């Protein structure tokens, strides 16, 4: 007899060893698969909050403040985006933890972490931010940081801030038409307009920030509607005339008009730096409500 | 004196900083926007955001009476910046920035690679202080002895000569300085510009004192030897320069040296590092005997401690560490240059490279990129991009890609394509939004809160002959009229016969076209032979009186290299005070576009430059829209409009996406 047939015979024999091995294999495969799949998906599911805003508004400062808790680091103009893992401060509970028992031992570890993604605000580098919007990874909210001290009427800062905000909101409004699946999955997308630098003398209060931005966006969308066509028009068969932000036919733009597109805009004041320390409680509260 | 030294990441977080006198953060911010983001300063080849470029090769950036020296480590995304007053001439800053870079990367490199954090735990102050002290000291020594020149390339020979002059030997600064010259390389020892034995006699004891101690006193003591070697090694400011010059001079090939954990040379390397041994070199042999043991002791003490007197040994430890880090970094550099040999090794790596080229995951090197970049450059040239701009773009992409790993199943070409796409997009995207209508609104109907008075918005159009100034002016006019503005067209071409009549025809046509839509347009003309600047000024006053919203000024075409014609533009800009100066350039023009854009950009005197381009005749060139890139490259001025046809309505905003697609399409 050749060894091969011997082997075959041994395998076919209902020996207890072969049985045990077979059972072990059959049982371990699902466990093995589960661990692989679970671990792979576990990496990407950290909820993320996106920081947007024009250059110099204090995004990176806010990022370092959220990361370190007490003091923001010195910062300069950013050139590249960065994602930082942050924890909710002690005392703040995420909305998803609301109904957990106080004694639940897992309550302190899960879901309190989130990724804060900082993007450069310089005009030439905004594509980083817009990429994050068109291809979001578990995006829970957007913080649009604005420098409240440069938002007085007729200011260059107001124009740039409103311009950027307009573009962002328009992109969010059109997210359903985009071909990207991840963008379509975003149902509600809350936007916080964080009016930063409240410690400065010229800073507008939050309510005023809201109304000036609304007024400026009204101007922007009328002038955009009147502008020349883009040179690329006709190549791609885009619908041409739906670049109107908010309710069509409305005379004045209000942030509340965005609710129709499931974009909830809030405005809250605060400061990252300043004389008597940072004051970002409102923003933390907003963040914890999104998680 | 140095004002500030900062270490920051590309994401904008300051990791560590040392401030001697407070400076405005605007200095570094403007460095970042101008040099890194907008790439305004044209860097010479090899410099820029590339890795391992010494600060000396990066052009210093000047802003508001301050000079900024910088260098960057690309893979970690950190930038090292030193700021000092422009009045001061600090020659050692380059060296400081480089040394700090080496130290910081070595000490905290692994912390910097951690994802999802901006915090770097660093206690860098003492390292920095040590470097500053040391470099300042060497600079001081050099200044007293060789004040005539601070050129870094000459430094080694100068300091060599400085040693030769008589000088009180037992100075610690001198010790660490003189050291490397003797102890560096046996092969090149003879070729160094150290002076003859006679003159060098007073100084040579200094360099041997340490060894005198190392020999009898502490042969067994490992620590002492380590200290001796480390401190004689590679500590002084001009060390690497002298090495470099020497390496260039010495004909023989250089070997990489192996270093163990302590920074000691491996024993089996056949070149002895300890040149102080009597057998080594005729120059030092005779001096050795003359050295008195007493003086050995004395200097020994001094070289051990620091001048502060307190915490001497701690400081010495720090020096050790710093020097060994610097030395090992240098040695590594030497090794990498020496190691690229061997036929078998290279062929294996070539095969592996081919494989990875298909599969991806290949780390790109300059050789990989060279050929593909050449192809990309040719492609851009075919698209009518001026050579200068094409070279700059390609260099930028190459710099960005060297050391980058390709993704899975991504070929080198595909990687270059995407990098070039983002590069083109970056160069064409304007820094701020270009909404002409809103700017006009802001000027013609200022908000009640601001103190500005209502005035007409003035746009003037300049350009070379025959590019379509008048045509594009009427196109803009048509666009404005459709938006119900009152427009005054001013004929400032008082030179070419028929120019005024041509504009008159345009205005007549536009009147007829837009009369129903409520626009109002008038022509302002003073005939021929008048001074254009005066006509423009009168026209603006007239428009303000009559309540026009926009003034469009047509100017005479002029050759950009004709100094006489160009000089009148400065007066024109001063008199007319235009809100926007637009230059019309035709898409047909090739390499000359760079010179055109540049000359027009500077023609308006200091403090005034172009505000935008109109690229006309884009419909005639098909895909070859390279002029767009060339002009923006030359001036950093954005393209406002693109002319795409003969009708009044054939004016378009530039869509960056469209332009990039055309430039990269291959046919």
UniProtKB/TrEMBL annotation, chain A:
Keywords: Endoplasmic reticulum, GTP-binding, Hydrolase, Membrane, Nucleotide-binding, Receptor, Transmembrane, Transmembrane helix. This is Signal recognition particle receptor subunit beta. One of its GO terms (cellular component) is endoplasmic reticulum membrane. It is found in: Endoplasmic reticulum membrane. Belongs to the SRP receptor beta subunit family. InterPro entries: P-loop_NTPase (IPR027417), SRP_receptor_beta_su (IPR019009). The keyword Endoplasmic reticulum applies. It comes from Venustampulla echinocandica.
UniProtKB/TrEMBL annotation, chain B:
PROSITE patterns: SRP54. Its main location: endoplasmic reticulum. One of its GO terms (molecular function) is GTP binding. Residues 140-308 are annotated as: Disordered. Residues 243-257 have a biased composition (Basic residues). It is a peripheral membrane protein. Gene3D superfamilies: 3.30.450.60, P-loop containing nucleotide triphosphate hydrolases, Signal recognition particle SRP54, nucleotide-binding domain. It comes from the Eukaryota. Belongs to the GTP-binding SRP family. Heterodimer of an alpha and a beta chain. This is Signal recognition particle receptor subunit alpha homolog. It comes from Venustampulla echinocandica.
């Amino acid at each position: 007899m050749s060894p091969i047939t011997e082997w075959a015979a041994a395998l076919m024999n209902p020996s207890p060893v072969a049985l045990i091995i077979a059972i072990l294999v059959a049982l371990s495969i699902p466990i093995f698969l589960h661990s692989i799949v679970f671990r792979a998906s576990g990496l990407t599911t950290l909820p993320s909050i996106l920081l947007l805003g024009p250059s110099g508004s204090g995004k990176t400062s806010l990022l370092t403040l959220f990361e370190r808790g007490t003091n923001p680091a010195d910062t300069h103009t950013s050139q590249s985006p960065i994602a930082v893992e942050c924890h909710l401060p002690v005392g703040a509970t995420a909305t998803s933890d609301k109904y957990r028992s106080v004694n639940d031992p897992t309550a302190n570890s899960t879901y309190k972490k989130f990724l804060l993604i900082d993007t450069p605000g310089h005009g030439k580098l905004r594509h980083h931010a817009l990429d994050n919007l068109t291809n979001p990874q578990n995006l829970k909210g957007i913080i649009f940081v604005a420098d409240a001290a440069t938002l007085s009427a007729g200011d260059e800062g107001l124009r740039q801030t409103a311009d950027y905000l307009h573009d962002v909101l328009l992109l969010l409004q059109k997210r359903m038409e985009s071909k990207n699946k991840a963008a379509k999955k975003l149902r509600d997308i809350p936007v916080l307009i964080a009016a930063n630098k409240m410690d400065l003398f010229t800073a507008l209060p939050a309510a005023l920030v809201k109304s000036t931005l609304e007024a400026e966006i009204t101007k922007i969308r009328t002038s955009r509607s009147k502008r020349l066509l883009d040179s690329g028009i006709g190549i791609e068969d885009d619908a041409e005339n739906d670049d109107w932000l908010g309710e069509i036919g409305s005379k004045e733009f209000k942030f509340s008009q965005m609710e129709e597109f499931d974009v909830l805009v809030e405005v809250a004041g605060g400061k990252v730096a300043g004389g008597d320390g940072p004051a970002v409680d409102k923003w933390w509260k907003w963040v914890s409500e999104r998680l | 004196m140095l004002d500030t030294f900062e270490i920051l990441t590309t994401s904008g977080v300051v990791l560590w900083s040392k401030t001697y006198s407070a400076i405005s953060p605007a200095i570094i911010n403007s460095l970042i926007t101008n040099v890194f983001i907008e790439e305004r300063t044209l860097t010479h080849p090899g410099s820029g955001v590339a890795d391992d470029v010494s600060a000396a090769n990066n052009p210093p950036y000047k802003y508001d009476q301050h000079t900024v020296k910088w260098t960057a480590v690309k893979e970690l995304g950190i930038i090292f910046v030193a700021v000092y007053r422009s009045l001061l001439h600090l020659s050692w800053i380059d060296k400081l920035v480089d040394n700090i870079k080496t130290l910081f990367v070595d000490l905290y490199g692994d912390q910097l690679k951690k994802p999802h954090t901006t915090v770097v735990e660093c206690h860098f102050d003492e390292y920095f202080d040590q470097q500053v002290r040391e470099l300042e000291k060497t600079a001081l020594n050099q200044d007293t002895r060789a004040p005539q020149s601070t050129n870094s390339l000459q430094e080694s020979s100068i300091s060599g000569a400085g040693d030769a002059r008589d000088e009180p030997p037992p100075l610690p600064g001198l010790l660490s300085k003189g050291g490397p010259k003797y102890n560096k390389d046996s092969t090149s020892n003879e070729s160094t510009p150290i002076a003859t034995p006679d003159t060098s006699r007073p100084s040579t004891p200094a360099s041997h004192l340490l060894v005198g101690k190392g020999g009898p006193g502490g042969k067994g003591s490992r620590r002492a030897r380590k200290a001796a070697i480390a401190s004689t090694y590679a500590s002084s400011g001009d060390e690497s320069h002298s090495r470099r010059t020497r390496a260039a001079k010495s004909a023989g090939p250089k070997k990489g040296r192996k270093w163990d954990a302590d920074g000691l040379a491996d024993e089996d390397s056949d070149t002895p590092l300890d040149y102080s041994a009597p057998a080594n070199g005729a120059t030092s042999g005779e001096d050795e005997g003359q050295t008195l043991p007493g003086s050995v002791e004395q200097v020994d003490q001094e070289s051990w401690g620091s001048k502060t007197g307190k915490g001497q040994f701690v400081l010495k430890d720090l020096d050790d560490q710093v020097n060994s880090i610097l030395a090992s970094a240098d040695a590594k550099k030497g090794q990498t240059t020496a190691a690229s040999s061997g036929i078998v090794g290279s062929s294996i790596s070539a095969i592996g490279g081919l494989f990875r080229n298909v599969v991806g995951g290949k780390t790109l090197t300059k050789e990989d990129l060279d050929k593909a970049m050449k192809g990309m450059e040719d492609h851009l040239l075919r698209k009518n991009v001026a050579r200068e701009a094409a070279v700059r773009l390609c260099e930028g992409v190459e710099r960005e890609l060297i050391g980058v790993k390709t993704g899975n199943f991504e070929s080198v070409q595909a990687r270059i394509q995407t990098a070039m796409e983002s590069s083109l997009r970056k160069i064409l995207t304007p820094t701020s939004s270009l909404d002409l209508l809103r700017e006009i609104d802001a000027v013609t109907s200022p908000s009640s809160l601001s103190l500005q008075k209502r005035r007409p918005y003035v746009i003037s159009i300049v350009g070379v002959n025959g590019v379509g100034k008048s045509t594009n002016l009427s196109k803009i006019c048509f666009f404005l009229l459709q938006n119900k503005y009152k427009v005054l067209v001013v004929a400032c071409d008082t030179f070419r016969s028929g120019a005024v009549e041509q504009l008159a025809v345009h205005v007549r046509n536009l009147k007829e076209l837009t009369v129903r839509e409520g626009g109002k347009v008038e022509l302002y003309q003073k005939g021929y032979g008048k001074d254009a600047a005066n006509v423009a000024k009168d026209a603006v006053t007239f428009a303000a009186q009559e309540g026009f919203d926009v003034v469009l000024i047509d100017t005479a075409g002029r050759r950009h290299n004709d100094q006489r014609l160009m000089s009148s533009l400065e007066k024109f800009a001063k008199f007319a005070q235009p809100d926007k100066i637009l230059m019309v350039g035709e898409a047909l023009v090739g390499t000359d576009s760079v010179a055109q854009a540049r000359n027009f950009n500077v023609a308006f005197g200091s403090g005034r430059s172009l505000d935008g381009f109109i690229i006309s005749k884009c419909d005639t060139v098909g895909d070859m829209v390279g002029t767009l890139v060339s002009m923006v490259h030359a001036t950093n001025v954005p393209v406002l409009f693109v002319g795409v046809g003969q009708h009044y309505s054939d004016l378009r905003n530039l869509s960056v996406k469209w332009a990039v697609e055309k430039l990269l399409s291959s046919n």
